[in-house]
Each structure stands twice: as C-alpha cells, then as structure tokens.
Amino acid sequence: MDAWGKWTKTNDKIILAADGNGEFVTATGLVQDLTKIGFGAVRSKRFALVADDLKVTYIGVETASGVSVSGADAVLAAL
C-alpha cells in the first residue's frame, strides 16, 4: 500500500490501509466465504469507504460481480 500511495502521489490526502489478517472486514461484516469456488479462504467483499475526520461518510459494497458502487465514479459522486 505504501508503494502504491507513493506512485499515485496521495501524500497525506488519502490513507491507503491494508487489512492483511482481515480483522477490519470481519469486524464490519465485509467478509465473504469463497472456499466453495476455489478461492481458498474467507475474503473481503469489494467495497470502497470514505471517511472524514474518522467518520464514515460513504460505503459502497458490491452485491454482484463487476464494479459499480465501489468504483471511482460512485466514490467521487459521494464526495
């Protein structure tokens, strides 16, 4: 995440946070079990989250394949 932030020059405007152990997504209910289709483990749902001063102002969780509510257009529209 650090390298991506440097490459995109987000500086201190955006926090790019990893959740390697899945603790955040588990605590927030943003997990899905994909073991039955061969993905090996419980994984994060596709989502985008916007927070302002530690308050969540937007969360877009995909309910189907593809990208809609977690995509750039939806997130930018919510800002």
From TrEMBL:
* Cross-referenced InterPro entries: PRX5-like, Redoxin, Thioredoxin-like_sf
Q: Name one GO cellular component term.
A: mitochondrion
Among the record's GO biological process terms, what is one?
hydrogen peroxide catabolic process
Assigned keywords, A-Z: Antioxidant, Oxidoreductase, Peroxidase, Redox-active center
Tell me the ranges covered by the Redoxin domain, including all copies.
2-76
Write one Gene Ontology MF term: thioredoxin peroxidase activity
Superkingdom of source? Eukaryota
What family is reported? Belongs to the peroxiredoxin family. Prx5 subfamily.
Q: What is this protein called?
A: Redoxin domain-containing protein
Species this chain originates from: Linnemannia exigua
Q: What is the lineage of its organism?
A: Eukaryota, Fungi, Fungi incertae sedis, Mucoromycota, Mortierellomycotina
